[in-house]
Description:
This protein has helices spanning 4-9, 11-26, 78-92, 106-116, 130-135, 162-169, 179-185; strands at 47-49, 57-59, 68-73, 96-102, 125-126, 142-146, 152-157. By secondary structure, the protein is α/β, with parallel strands linked by helices. It has a single domain, classed as 3-Layer(aba) Sandwich (Glutaredoxin), CATH 3.40.30.10. It has a five-stranded mixed β-sheet with strand order 5-4-3-6-7. Strands 1-2 form a two-stranded antiparallel ribbon. The longest helix has 16 residues, at 11-26. It starts with a helix and ends with a helix.
Amino acid sequence: MLPRKGVWVFLPLIGFIALAILLASGLGKNTEDLPTALAGKPLPQMQLPSLLRKGNVVDNRLFEGRWTLLNVWATWCPTCHIEHPYLLKLAQRGVAIVGLDYKDEDAAAKNYLANLGNPYVEVPVDASGAYGLNLGVYGAPETYLVSPQGDIVLRHVGEMNERVWQAKFLPLMKEPSDIKLQVEAQ
């Protein structure tokens, strides 16, 4: 039998093994494929101030009648800077994108869009992050595909790029009016 003092020597080893097992269980999982409990459900009710139109309030009517991307972004997000040129390309192709400015400073966001270009049809401001909580946002960037009926169809965590657009978003947009978008994207 080991002396009582000897048992304590193994405690760090046991802790290390438990931590290694915990970390290993998450390895190999694609963070881009984080599911959303909101898939197939209406977009949470939005009543947020507009960054672009002082005094205006952005609500869910903005998403009705067309496929729309809801892109969660911020000036402090390095990956948002990387995906921004691609969002500009999508906007030029006619894709409606709403940019949820998440936990950001209004002046910094306005300057960002003025300097880099604005791919968004509207920019609701979620300064507190409360709306992001309703969406289940982990951070930025995240992009949601919202149907013409206002339902969330897909959530993508991470950079929006051509590969993601082609593989995840376009196949879900089955409206006849979206054929033009599919042809232009190729």
